[in-house]
Amino acid sequence: MLNFNSLLVFSQDPKALAGFYEKVFGAKPGWSGGDFVGFSVGTGFFTIGSHDKIHGKSKEPARIMFNFETEDVQGEFKRIKKLGAKVIAEPYHPREDGDSDMLIATFADPDGNYFQLMSPMDM
């Protein structure tokens, strides 16, 4: 079985994107080298870097979303919204009947990539 290790996000302006996620995570990168920085996030790693084929904002931001788990979706939603993240979806219950404690909220980062806050999921 494979173990998910990390996510690498490329950007035309990795310094600006890293500055944004530094505020989101409330922590400085754990390492940096050249145009790359990496954050420890939970049990994984979130890396940001430059790539010569990446220009401008994401053209299909809904294609892939990264999810960050939190016990306090409402509180983190308010905090991250104040940071200037673009709100795509305010906190909502994903089940149509609303019969769930789970909440999800969706944002776009400065490059237009979508990321979500989610209540913990029982696997």
Give the number of DSSP strands: 8
Q: Please bin the fraction of helical residues.
A: 10-25%
- Class from secondary-structure proportions: alpha/beta
* Uncertain segments: none
Shape: globular
Query: How far apart, in Å, are the first and last alpha carbons?
Result: 16 Å
| Chain oligomer state | single chain
Mean of pLDDT: 92
Strand content: 35-45%
Q: What value does the Rg take, in angstroms?
A: 15 Å
Q: Which sequence of SSEs, written as H and E, runs from N to C?
A: EHEEEEHEEE
| Largest sheet features | 4 strands, mixed
Total of DSSP H or I helical runs spanning 4+ residues: 2
Strand order of the largest sheet: 1-4-3-2
Q: What does this entry look like structurally?
A:
- Strands 1-4-3-2 form a four-stranded mixed sheet, with helices on one face. A four-stranded mixed sheet has the order 5-8-7-6.
- It is an alpha/beta fold.
- It starts with 5 loop residues before the first strand and ends in a 5-residue tail after the last strand.
- The protein has helices at residues 14-25, 73-82, and strands spanning 6-11, 31-33, 36-41, 44-50, 65-69, 86-92, 104-108, 114-118.
- The chain is globular.
- The mean pLDDT is 92.
- β2 (31-33) and β3 form a beta hairpin.
- The longest helix has 12 residues, at 14-25.
Question: Which labels suit this protein?
Answer:
single chain; 123 residues; alpha/beta; four-stranded mixed beta sheet; 2 helices; 8 strands
Short account of what is shown:
This protein has 123 residues and is an alpha/beta fold.
